[in-house]
Amino acid sequence: MTETALTAKPATTQRRLPADWRSQATMSVMLVIGAAAMVLPFWWMFATSLSRKANVSMPRTPSFWPADPSFFNYQVATANLPIVQLYANSLLVVGVTTIGYLFFSALAGYAFAKGRFPGKSVLFIIFLATLFIPFETRMIPLYLMMSDLGLTNTYWALILPFLAGGFGTFLMRQTIASIPDELLEAARIDGASEFRIFWQIVLPLCKPTLATLAILNVIWRWNDVLWPLLVTSKRELFTVTQGLALAGRTQGIYTGVALATAVMAILPVIVAYLVLQRYVIRSVVSSGVKG
Predict the structure, then answer these.
(1) Which region holds residue 150: left if phi is over 0, alpha if psi is between -120 and 50, else beta?
(2) DSSP bridge pairs for 51
(3) How far apart, in whole angstroms, are the C-alpha atoms of residue 177 and residue 179?
(4) Chain centre to alpha carbon of residue 194
(5) From CA 50, how far away is CA 67, in angstroms rounded?
(6) 79-97 in b/e burial notation, b at 16+ Cβ within 10 A?
């Protein structure tokens, strides 16, 4: 073999697409179609809420931008509504329930993950079984309980039933179980109490999961209409979705105004979810792969 052949560089090979590029391309196309199917109805709702002509007759084909954009429908929707009071009530209820939900779910999750007491596994399974009971099944007993306690037509009726839940406890238990026991034992040797370990060591390590539970609880409580309608009849206690839902019934056939109220009801949770969605995905995936 000659010296030229030894020093010659190998020919540059062309880059090839991975063998499964067709399946990846198909999956991407289907994801785009699915995303469009979810997003386009909301965009159409927002665009139609800006059209004054929508109150007269709906277009036969969906229009994704109105020919006469204005905020007239929003002005009509809020003219006779105490919109500031509605948002204040929702912020109070959602804020208190979210803080309570995070605290008690984390506390119960810590007990099930790191606690040692008889019947822990059985009790945890029973606790998770509550996830299979629809809220509509528990709604009447909860209402009778609130009525017997004299809490109907109060903020407490909107808050107390949602300060804990099986899903939050499960998610926190899965996350806390992955924390090394050696870390907690070292803190106990240093003289830290159980609550101090929970507050200063466990909770800071669970920030992604706590953020996930926070955004999920905000979505659940903000969008809740059925329970507030059942336990409150005073207008000064109405939440945003409750007040706008009742207002929508009085707006008759004015489609543009009705869609404007719907946009005002769902816009805060859409923004909150878009900001924190990465925490939701990260925490749900991790909870599914950890023991």
Answers:
(1) left
(2) 69
(3) 6
(4) 30
(5) 9
(6) eebebeebeebbeebbebb
Contact 262, 254 (CB under 8 A): no
Q: Which residue has the tokens 């466990």?
A: 202
Report yes or no: 247 and 83 within 8 Å, Cβ to Cβ.
no
Burial 107-145 (b: 16+ CB within 10 A, else e): bbbbbbbbeeeeeeeeebeebeeeeeeeeeeeeeebbee
Identify the top-confidence range among 12-16, 50-54, 175-179, 254-258.
175-179
Q: What is the pLDDT of residues 207-237, one digit of tens each?
A: 888 988 888 898 889 888 889 999 998 888 9
- What's the pTM? 0.76
Round to whole Å and give the CA distance between 52 and 59: 12
The domain spans of the chain are 84-221+269-289
**Superfamily of 84-221+269-289 according to CATH:** MetI-like (1.10.3720.10)
Rounded CA separation 8/3 (Å): 9
Q: Which amino acid makes up residue 51? A: S
Q: What is the DSSP letter of 55?
A: G
Per DSSP, the chain holds a count of helices (H) and strands (E) of: 14, 0
φ, ψ (nearest 5 deg) of residue 130: -65, -20
Task: Count CB-CB contacts under 10 A for residue 196.
Answer: 13
Return d(Cα 130, Cα 135) in angstroms, integer. Answer: 10
